[in-house]
């Protein structure tokens, strides 16, 4: 079970930190990631992190502004979002990787319910 929190409404240029609590004893076996979906758009990859945090991957649109991290002792995944833009507005989903490319939505077998992020101009 994956439960996201930390979404909200902010002004463009502000920061938010999303958290994802993972319930279960196998969190540290999975690479994890974040996807997002804006209204009337396809769900898209945002960021991913390997099982121990040593490797991270980002979409070009967020590189340099967002930071993905994890705390395996707390079974928690994070997404620090800085310099938010109106185009970052979307529902953000926490995901667990079950095989395949980190950049493909089909590679993630477990999804949270999502948290809304809105950056107003």
Can you walk me through this structure?
The chain is mainly β. The model has no long low-confidence stretch (mean pLDDT 96). Strand 4 (32-37) and strand 5 (44-49) form a beta hairpin. It has strands at 2-5, 8-11, 16-22, 32-37, 44-49, 56-58, 66-71, 76-81, 90-97, 108-111, 115-120. The strands form two sheets. Strands 2, 4, 5, 6, 9, 10 and 11 form a seven-stranded mixed β-sheet that branches. A four-stranded antiparallel β-sheet has the order 1-3-8-7, with no helix packed on it.
The low-pLDDT segments are: none
Overall mean pLDDT: 96
* Helical content (DSSP H or I, runs of 4+): under 10%
Q: Proportion of β residues?
A: over 45%
Decide which structural class fits the backbone. Answer: mainly beta
Helical segment count? 0
The radius of gyration is: 13 Å
Query: How many β-strand runs?
Result: 11
Assembly form of the protein: single chain
Q: Mind describing the biggest β-sheet?
A: 7 strands, mixed
Distance between the termini: 34 Å
Question: What's the overall geometry?
Answer: globular
């Amino acid at each position: 079970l994956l439960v996201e929190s930390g979404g909200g409404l902010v002004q463009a240029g502000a920061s938010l930190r999303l958290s994802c609590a993972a319930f279960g004893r196998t969190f540290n076996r999975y690479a994890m990631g974040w996807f997002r979906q804006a209204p009337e758009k396809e769900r898209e990859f945002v960021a991913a992190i390997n099982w121990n945090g040593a490797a991270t991957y980002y979409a070009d649109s967020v590189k340099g502004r967002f930071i993905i991290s994890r705390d395996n002792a707390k079974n928690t995944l994070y997404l620090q979002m800085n310099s938010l833009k109106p185009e970052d507005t979307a529902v953000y989903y926490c995901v667990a990787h079950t095989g395949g490319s980190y950049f493909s939505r089909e590679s993630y077998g477990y999804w949270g319910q999502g948290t809304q992020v809105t950056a107003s101009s």
